[in-house]
User: Which sequence fits this backbone?
DNA sequence: TATTTAGGTAAACACACGTTTACATATCGA
DNA sequence: TCGATATGTAAACGTGTGTTTACCTAAATA
């Protein structure tokens, strides 16, 4: 009761509302626990709906995962960047959490352990993140720059969320945060 | 037949040899498929032994995973480093594969999706890698440097092994390799 | 209001997988 | 040689989990 912000049960029957509730709950739990350790019942319990509705409305857990990714992967973020403040902007908008904006990378990374989910995540990662960033970086060594972005993002998020070693006792250590920002900035400058 | 280098069946009964065969097969498959997608039967089939022997000799899949990590995590590599050639040495000995030496990081990273396996991997990662590296780095910002090492290693290996995007068509692109080496070198220099 | 249909539910199903059990047999000491 | 023990095996077991089924009921339609 005190733990989660579970959705209240639908009193009136409304398929669209139910679908949205499932999507929202799924996004939350996939982010938190990863694809493999997230059960369909975890999602439907949180959404306050019946377990069968995941298969009915989305065609199964895997398709639901794909639907969550499609919903969350918003590439417009690339257009909001500028090379002057790339490091700061990326860190604020893409790596650290921002209220109102969902960071898709943790969900994507939560799929690497499952071969089927990974295939889906990989396709979206390529089309919605890697390619747009490559294009945005422009000509010289664009793919290498995009790879550097992916490597640092992936490494940092995995380290922070899955491998809580020092210096992550409470939050990101200032010196590490500073390094991160410089790393991202260097991608567009070096 | 043509695919794997499966162990031949033990003709003579020898518990030690069997244990070794299981460890060797487990190391191979854990590295290749990760903890979650590796089945006990996958391991025992490759080792050419009965499936029950994993539980009998190691106490279960999780304990076997721990035994593989214990066997593979060799910290002596830290003592072989020097700050002059840190980037080159780390890249050669710790990131890229070296014949005869097993890189423990992919096995460790293959456990992040499973909460129980992750706990084991995290403990060993801390004790056998993070702390030794921190100590080796020495005084100033040692933990931040160790974190940078972890982030870049983790990001690169995840990217290369789990998310094969460009520029990884065949092997590591030279410009990316060059960047990686410089990143590692900068950890001890900046 | 009577009928149909879409939305929702509980239970059962199917399958995968780690583990345990009961049994077989090679090895070795007395 | 002859038990005793260690080693190995096949089969069954228990459980977790995604999915399907059969059924129920509120909402919509005429």
Assistant:
């Amino acid at each position: 009761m005190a733990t989660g912000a579970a959705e209240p049960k639908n009193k009136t029957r409304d398929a669209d509302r139910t679908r949205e509730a499932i999507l929202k709950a799924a996004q939350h739990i996939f982010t938190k626990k990863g694809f493999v350790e997230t059960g369909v019942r975890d999602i439907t319990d949180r959404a306050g709906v019946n377990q069968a509705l995941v298969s009915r409305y989305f065609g199964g857990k895997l398709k639901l995962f794909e639907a969550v990714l499609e919903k969350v992967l918003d590439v417009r973020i690339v257009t909001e960047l500028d090379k002057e403040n790339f490091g700061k902007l990326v860190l604020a908008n893409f790596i650290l959490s921002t209220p109102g904006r969902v960071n898709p990378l943790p969900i994507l990374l939560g799929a690497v352990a499952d071969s089927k989910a990974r295939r889906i995540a990989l396709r979206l990662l390529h089309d919605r993140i890697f390619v747009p960033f490559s294009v945005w970086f422009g000509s010289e060594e664009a793919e290498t720059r995009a790879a550097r972005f992916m490597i640092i993002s992936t490494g940092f998020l995995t380290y922070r969320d899955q491998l809580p070693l020092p210096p992550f006792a409470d939050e990101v250590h200032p010196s590490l945060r500073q390094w991160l920002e410089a790393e991202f900035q260097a991608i567009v400058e070096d």
In short: Residues 10, 13-15, 18, 49-53, 56 of chain A lie near DNA strand C (CB under 10 Å from a C1'). Residues 87 and 185 of chain A are 4 Å apart (CA to CA). Confidence is low (pLDDT under 50) at residues 1-10 of chain A. Chain A touches chain B through 42 residues (CB under 8 Å).
